[in-house]
Write a structure and sequence with these properties.
The structure holds two protein chains of two kinds. Chain A is of the alpha+beta class. Chain A contains 21 helices and 22 strands. In chain A, the strands form seven sheets. In chain A, strands 2, 3, 4, 5, 10 and 18 form a six-stranded mixed beta sheet that branches. A five-stranded antiparallel beta sheet of chain A has the order 12-11-22-21-20, with helices on both faces. In chain A, helix 9 packs antiparallel against helix 19. Chain A is elongated, with a radius of gyration of 32 Å. By secondary structure, chain B is mainly alpha-helical. Chain B folds into two domains: 304 residues, no CATH class; 98 residues, no CATH class. In chain B, 69% of the residues lie in helices and 3% in strands. Chain B is built from 19 helices and three strands. The relative contact order of chain B is 0.14. The chains are: A alpha+beta, B mainly alpha. The interface between A and B is large, with 36 and 46 residues.
């Protein structure tokens, strides 16, 4: 016993140690520990973010240098605080609190003292910098905007947040990432790939040389430039016209589905979301819950489309063979649903397809709508046929555009009304408002523009998109180059387009003709309501207009939606007309028309419901 | 029988194991202390260069020991002991303070740590006393003499302060156990330690319940023929519970916070993740970094000179007390288990040698040497891999340090010298 005691203890200790070491080195060890090894610091080499050009190669977004003032607290020597603060443009308490924050973060590591100095401030500071030991200037790259337009489409970049860090291992705290619009959609192409250097560190976090002689290091890959389909000139002009107005405009090139302009009013300068004032500006824009500048109305607003929708009902009527060009309906300054007269502004009389469209006769389209439904034994069957035709125009669902946001709009279906009214408790007459684009129908300006492009193409469209080419090769997603056909035969389009052309010749937009350009269009005037403090009130109608031009070989199709702009030909029609002229001719011949649109604002209209007093809507004088 | 010179009957297995351990130790010191600019192995401004110099001194020491007559050590063992005690006392006047402990004499080229020398002296003196024909360890009087021999240097070292080295002297009790000191003393000690730890972990109530259940189990499963009187058992339980209560009292009222923290860390008493994090950054920092470094080595390790945490000096005192963590990081599980294996074989070989001695003095001294080495090894590696609380003792032959290496070497080689002479002892 006594001879074996020490030997057994030694063996026991040996086994205990081996056991503990197996636990530590075999069980607890994981090979990717290198990633969170505190002894290895990764230093990143960021490539320049790719530039964004418009369809004609004009620069929209580039980069600009910015200068951060950095501090390493323990290297700071006593300094002339007052002079330094003046140079930096901050006051002393702010300076002291920032210094304290930096010191608390780490006395040895650099912190940002003042971020993103402008070039001018930098120039002033640079010559004095040597007086201030412990401070230095670090250059970094910011977005530079060569336009004051298209803020929502282009989107902005901002620092990654915790959610990004958790969900995408690529990002490291402090990096920038495309947050909305094209910057978000094409983030990976624009940003490139950062390079990484592994640096061996000691426990005081000091560098002591490259880890494994840089065997694991990678070089940065440049971000690629992209060309987008927007036309800088048209976009900027459109935003100018939108001055003082709220609404959305989308212009599409029908033969390619390329989005030429995407305007949301009120617009704002994209440069507001860059630099030192960024967060202040962002709060201002984001928390304006009435005008909502950051809410892109061109793709998110979903008003009822109004009369432009009549063209689709005409096409469906023709396709289903329930009407032809000569089919007549009489307008009694309205039409009867049961014993109720629903009004119409067309002037009354007998209407055929052509005059029904250009005079925008409600009675005519109510008749067409009924005929479509009457063709089938049940309303349900009629409804689903109608719904199928409508959806083939890209309505009632997301279009598949290459933008990170969007809205589906709404084409109601059988299930929708069964839920509303109950199974079998509704008929074509119940939902007759759909015939004139009111009722339960909703569409974004993008969907309306796309629908117009499909009409311009006589039966097909390309998924609207903003990407034109990527880098040098120019390849884009093939889904944007394949036509999507509607369920309407080509031959039915011509009579409808003729009606739309007559809107300009004799109809609701005859004041807006452009000399030398044949336009086909359709006005829309949309009733709308708002609820403020629980009180529902009717506001001045929305002004809607869709158009394409030239009628033969269309180059542009657009939809204009102006909130509370009253009837279609007023604001929306004017703006559509000016945009078409600008795009096709390159200049405006009707200067008085242009001046009127640039000067007029709708601010007084938007202020009405918040004035707290009773107000008139749809005022004749403007 | 090969040659009759001083190296003649040396136990070459032990010598080779010793040399291997010193060599591996030096490789790791090199790894922890080499810098980018260092080119020469013999640069004495570097730690590895100095250690190489100390290895040279140790080799000289070996030659010196081997050339001395083996009777010299037995005859002068009391002198060794007295010199050691005097040197320890001298520290109170002439001592040099390094890192808060007054444990060194400054010899200019070399800092002498007498507590290392005293391990040799005490082992020799204890062996001399026990092997005396008149000594009977079973008598209380002689037990007390033996205790005094062991505890005197321990008491002198404690206030330096160097509780680690002081604790080492308790290892010499194994010599007493080998020579007939009642082993149940050890049993009581272990029982007390277990009670101490379990009380802190589970509380007195659970300890009492555990003891009662244990007793019931023993009574249930014992052979009917074995009679265990019930009263003494109840007495033991009562004393244990009292002890357990006193543990709580001592822990809360006598210990200081830093001691409590160490035990809290060791026994995983702290469950609050935030406080645990705080402990890791303060008193548990060394252990935490050391465990992390070892863990990151995995099965094969990161390779010689490739240990990122070793290079980054993440583990404090890595070249001295925490040298084993460098083995763990750079050589992985293969390296650490090899070192454990080498140490175990080395110790077992020394026990084998001790048991073959004809001279009582040689055997007892051998046991002293082994006990001291094993205790260092147990406490050091146990601490580095996080099994034991932080107690600063070096790993023999591995850790950087001149006094340590030289006196461990002399401690060992005096024993090997005695062994090489064992055949003459009977004459």
């Amino acid at each position: 016993m006594k001879k074996l005691l020490l030997s057994s203890i030694i063996v026991l200790i040996g086994f205990t140690f081996i056991g503990r070491l197996s636990y530590l080195q075999l069980f607890r060890f994981s090979p990717d520990q290198i990633l969170d090894d505190p002894a290895i610091k990764k230093v990143y080499d960021y490539p320049e973010r790719g530039y964004i050009y418009d369809r004609n190669g004009k620069l929209l977004v580039g980069n600009q240098p910015a200068y951060d003032v950095m501090v390493i607290p323990r290297e700071v020597k006593p300094l002339d605080t007052l002079e330094f603060c003046t140079l930096l443009g901050i006051d002393k308490p702010e300076f002291l609190s920032k210094m304290e924050k930096a010191r608390r973060y780490s006395p040895r590591l650099p912190s940002v003292l003042v971020p993103q100095l402008s070039k001018e401030d930098y120039a002033k500071l640079q010559e004095k910098m040597r007086h201030f030991t412990g401070f230095y200037i670090q250059k970094r790259s910011l977005r530079y905007y060569n336009t004051k337009s298209a803020a929502n489409v282009l989107g902005y970049i901002s620092e990654v947040n915790e959610w990004d860090l958790k969900n995408n291992p690529y990002y490291v705290a402090g990096e920038l990432k495309g947050r909305t619009g094209i910057e978000q959609q094409y983030e990976e192409i624009l940003r490139g790939q950062k390079g990484v250097k592994h640096i061996q560190k000691d426990r005081f976090n000091r560098d002591i040389g490259p880890y494994k002689d840089g065997k694991l290091d990678t070089l940065p890959q440049q971000g690629k430039e992209i060309h987008i389909t927007l036309d800088k000139t048209l976009q900027e002009y459109g935003e100018k016209l939108m001055h003082g107005k709220r609404g959305g405009i989308v212009a599409i090139e029908p033969k390619s589905g390329e989005i030429l302009a995407m305007i949301s009013g009120p617009a704002y300068d994209p440069a507001l979301l860059v630099g030192r004032e960024r967060s202040k500006n962002y709060s201002k824009l984001h928390y304006d819950t009435i005008a909502k500048p950051t809410w892109d109305r061109s793709i998110l607003a979903q008003p009822s489309p109004g009369s432009p929708f009549k063209t689709l009902n005409a096409l469906i009527g023709l396709q289903e063979g329930v009407i032809d060009e000569d089919t007549n309906f009489r307008c009694y300054h309205g039409f009867y649903v049961g014993n109720t007269l629903r009004g119409c502004h067309c002037g009354g009389g007998v209407r055929d397809l052509n005059s029904g469209i250009y005079q925008s006769c409600n009675a005519y389209f109510a008749g067409v709508f009924r005929k479509i439904y009457d063709k089938y034994e049940t309303t349900d069957k009629g409804m689903s046929v109608w719904e199928k035709h409508m959806k083939s125009f890209g309505l009632g669902d997301f279009l598949g555009t290459d933008l990170p946001t969007g809205a589906p709009g709404r084409i109601p279906d059988v299930a929708y009304y069964d839920k509303w009214y109950g199974d079998g408790r509704w008929a074509a007459s119940t939902i007759i408002s759909n015939s004139i684009g009111q009722g339960e129908i909703a569409a974004t300006p993008l969907q309306l523009a796309n629908m117009t492009a499909a009409i311009a193409n006589r039966g097909y469209f390309y998924t609207p998109h903003v990407i034109k080419s990527i880098g040098n090769k120019g390849d884009i997603d093939p889904k944007y180059t394949e036509p999507r056909y509607t369920t309407i035969d080509r031959k039915h389009f011509d009579p409808v387009i003729e009606g739309m052309a007559n809107v300009y010749n004799y109809g609701t937009a005859r004041w807006l003709k452009i000399p030398g350009i044949d336009i086909a269009g359709k006005t829309g005037t949309v009733e709308n309501y708002i609820r403020i403090d629980g009180e529902r009130m009717q506001l001045t109608d929305h002004s809607v207009f869709v158009a394409f031009a030239p009628v033969e070989n269309p180059q542009i199709a657009l939809a204009v939606y102006i909130e509370n702009g009253y009837y279609g030909a007023r604001y929306a029609g004017h703006i559509a007309s000016l945009l078409i002229e600008k795009y096709i001719k390159g200049e405006i011949t009707r200067k008085d028309l242009e001046k009127r649109m640039l000067d007029k604002t709708l601010e007084h209209e938007y202020a009405k419901p918040y004035s707290g007093e009773p107000f008139e809507i749809n005022e004749y004088v403007w | 029988m090969s040659g009759r010179g001083p190296f003649g009957r040396l136990d070459w297995v032990s010598v080779i194991l010793y040399a291997l351990l010193v060599f591996i130790g030096w490789l790791n010191i090199y790894s922890t202390s080499v810098g980018e600019a260092d080119t020469s192995l013999f640069d004495f401004s570097t730690l590895y260069g100095k250690q190489l110099f100390f290895i040279g001194l140790a080799a000289l020491g070996i030659v010196f020991v081997l050339f001395v007559e083996s009777q010299f050590f037995e005859r002068f063992s009391s002198i060794f002991y007295i010199v050691s005690i005097v040197l320890l006392l001298g520290l109170f006047v002439f001592g040099k303070t390094i890192a808060g402990a007054t444990s060194w004499y400054d010899l200019g080229f070399f800092n002498l740590q007498p507590s290392e020398l005293a391990k040799v002296g005490t082992s020799l003196a204890l062996a001399k006393f026990l092997s005396d024909i008149q000594t009977d360890i079973r008598t209380g009087k002689h037990q007390i003499y033996a205790l005094v021999i062991i505890l005197l240097p321990a008491l002198l070292i404690l206030p330096q302060p160097d509780p680690g080295s002081s604790l080492i002297y308790f290892s010499l009790f194994f010599v007493l156990f080998r020579e007939g000191f009642p082993i149940y003393y050890l049993g009581i000690l272990i029982f007390a330690v277990v009670l101490f730890a379990t009380t802190l972990m589970f509380g007195t109530v659970w300890v009492a319940i555990g003891l009662v259940i244990l007793t019931l189990l023993v009574y249930t499963f014992k052979k009917a023929s074995v009679k265990i009187p019930i009263l003494p058992v109840l007495g033991v339980i009562a004393v244990s519970v009292l002890f357990s209560l006193s543990v709580n009292f001592v822990f809360e009222n006598v210990f200081e916070q830093r001691h409590r923290d160490r035990f809290a860390l060791w026994l995983s008493l702290e469950k609050d993740e935030e406080k645990l994090d705080e402990i890791r950054k303060t008193i548990g920092y060394n252990t935490y970094q050391s465990e992390k470094a070892i863990e990151s080595g995995g099965f094969t390790g990161k390779g010689f000179l490739e240990g990122t945490r070793t290079k980054g000096d993440f583990v404090p005192e890595q070249h001295t007390d925490y040298i084993f963590s460098s083995v763990g990081e750079e050589w992985g599980f293969l390296g650490t288990s090899t070192v454990i294996l080498l140490f175990s074989l080395f110790f077992l070989r020394l026990i084998y040698i001790a048991e073959r001695q004809k001279s009582d003095f040689s055997r007892m001294y051998g046991y002293g040497v082994i006990s001291i080495l094993v205790f260092h090894y147990f406490i050091n590696i146990g601490m580095v891999i996080g099994l034991l609380p932080t107690i600063g003792v070096p790993l023999p032959f591995f850790s950087y340090g001149g006094s340590g290496l030289i006196f461990f070497t002399m401690l060992l080689f005096i024993f090997l010298k005695l062994d090489s002479n064992r055949l003459k002892d009977g004459i």
